[in-house]
Amino acid sequence: MKRKFQVVLGILLIMALVLPACTTADAPAADVPEEDVVAEDVGDEEEVEASEPTLWEQMRADVMSQLGDFVAPDDSDMRVGVLMITMANPFWVTFSEGAEAMGEELGITVDILSAPTEGDVSSQLSTCETMVASGYDAIVIYPITANNLNPCILAATEAGIPVIEPDTRIDAEAVAEDGGEFTPVFTLDFFEQGAVGAQYIVDQLGEEGGEVAVIEGLSAAPQSQRRRDGAISVFESSENITFLTSQAGDWDRTVALNVATNIIQANPDIRGIYCANDVMALAAAEAAIAAGKGDQIVIVGTDFIEDAKQGIRDGVLGGSVAFSPYVWGEISVMMGVMAVQDIPIPDEVVLASMVVNADNVDLVDDWK
To answer: Is the Cβ–Cβ distance between 273 and 198 less than 8 Å?
Structure first.
């Protein structure tokens, strides 16, 4: 199932790119007055345009269908707490918008909290423990590392509050050893995200190949580790590609700018850089331009935030591995509601990932 929705979106993108080029110029003309044909065709086109869903809408419908047993609550007093990583990243801002919108749609209280920065593990734990003390009906968590929220999970278990983690970052064995309980849900294949981002770079470099590097996020963050490993696996197995290094950018633009600058200075012939998020990718693009190598280096990020979308259109960024933080926020709230209602949550609710580049960026203008 993990690859099912990536394949679906790939097919949809191909159709969207190919179908507009198809015409009926070679078809025999019908024996009908020309004005009637024109009027009928225009009407059909308007009807198709009005009813045809966008790629984002199709993806969202696919994801929602995986929560087939979901039942909207009839309880305006229900309270679901969602603990993100940080609002300092535009990705999580969009996530929060999706979670808030779903709370309003369902008529329940949804509170969204986070750590002040990507790496503030102690603050995130403190916030989580405060949420337990506040007595939410369910708590959905996105931990910074595999273990930093384990004490909070134990406290929630003792308080009888269900905890859902739609990210599979947590060290489940360590939680179980402590006596804690939570519901993990596979939603994103981080390894594959890194792999498809790296593969796009390999494809762009073609037979000539060249030197490439990876800028990972926070070293202790599981999603960073998996994206890094996915990218490296592709680079190291590709002909004519020389993998140079993977260095931590800490999810931070300034840190990543310094890292990218140093990598480019030390390797003036470098041809590609995969970054574990878009904030770092945009910093790497800035470093490449400053070094006069903006056209030489293919840079691919992850998350497809608005700045990355514009960067792709401007030719600054080669591409971004896109998935929907907005829908991630929506289904996070839905899973919390299911936990309160004792409705079984599927082990997998997979969000599709795909590379957005200059060729298809206009097809996902409404992506969020």
So the answer is: no
